[in-house]
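Form 7-S
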Amino acid sequence: MDDSGTLHPRLAKRRRVNGIDTASRYSSPDELAVSSDHEPRNYHYRTSSTNLRRPSAENHRRSYGDSDPEDSPDELDHTIRDFYRDNWSRNLRPTASRHATPDAPSEISVITPVQAPASPATPLPPPPKEARYLPYRQKMVLKGHRRGVSAVRFSPNGDMIASCSADATLRIWSLPHGTPLQTLSSSSSSSSSGSSGGHLAGISTLAWSPDNATLASGSDDKSIRLWDIKTGKPYPLPLLGHHNYIYSIAFSPKGNMLVSGSYDEAVFLWDVRTARVMRRLPAHSDPVGGVDFSTDGTLIVSCAGDGLIRIWDTATGQCLRTLVHEDNAPVSSVRFSPNGKFVLAWTLDSCIRLWNYVEGRCVKTYQGHQNAKFSLGGAFGVYGDEEGEVGLGEKKAFAVSGSETGEILWWDVQSKEVLQRERAHEGVVLGIDTLDERGLVVSCGVDKTVRIWERETEREPEMENEKMEEGVDGTMKVELEEQNSTQSNRVEEPMQ
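Output:
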């Protein structure tokens, strides 16, 4: 976003490594094509082997699928029935009686095994139901922003949605009705002395603190603001230090640190309490498009237009791993998986790649959307094991992302199959977030709207029709309330 208010394509700065073939040295081809034996042994590019996690123990487990049946440890050769038959045969051997005399022939007593009463066969448990994907349908449209909406996030407790826009405002919406709660801007935070505490330019990114009490925003005015959700006012001290637009921010799991990536090619680690920079990481040679914390807070991931994805140690600031694909496409956004073992990366070649950062290889590539100019975002989610089938269904993961064509796509993480494709916005879909507990997805785009999507349930068609009608009524209600609340602001809005 520039000062004129238009959403400009991100990461437009020239790439400085186009003439260097770094991919062939450090990257592996797509989709498990190359094993670790092909990795160069002299690869020490800003890497500390002592801090790297060890590969999973699953690689060292013995597999019996291809072994000789005679070597198999299972019950094919020595079953429980054979074991008891051996014992019975030993008991059938003739034994001398205790009362036999030397002069008389010994009486032979035969021990007959007692047959256990036949027990009824225990029925086998039913096989687990295969996860069935239930599609998401649009529930409501939230309007109020005067320019394109660049990012949107669910609050950690699932009660609110926050959105930020090129109009230099943040808006808080309630769930499940989508009622507008607050508008955070420089005008709303002005003090009695006339000083402004909000942003002076478009806002590109936002993040919730884990306790739901604070909202952070990064702007084209080179500042990061922390907002008190209860009062709607910004904290007195902004986070200053970047020399250019701020593209991405993320809170640590404990909420005491904040990481930011900027057009100035740097990654900053902030102390939230003191509003001071803890570490300055000269991370990339092109604008940094995305940053994120791992689920335990020990790692940071960053990406940039130079095509590199880097894993950082939070405690030391050391680069532990550099990931680069052989195509060396600019990377616009990254996100850790919920289990912390993978990184999902959006690149400007219309691909989304899943990386195993411990092994340094790309394991999955998702395609079907269009992404060549804008920095898009997305998220992980789960499906299956629906309500009423707890313990019987199987859970699977999906990845969801927007597209420059105005669509939203859902992929199965394992099979890469496109589960759903929906026409969502008029223009580019910039931001996506998921709330699995309620089966919700929220999206935003350049059409100035925020849209909430709800997972379908197994109901009768009549009930589904009633639900859709309720969604339409709710959408109109939100729009009318928002028009009334922003009427005064629109009078002062400059001519575009």
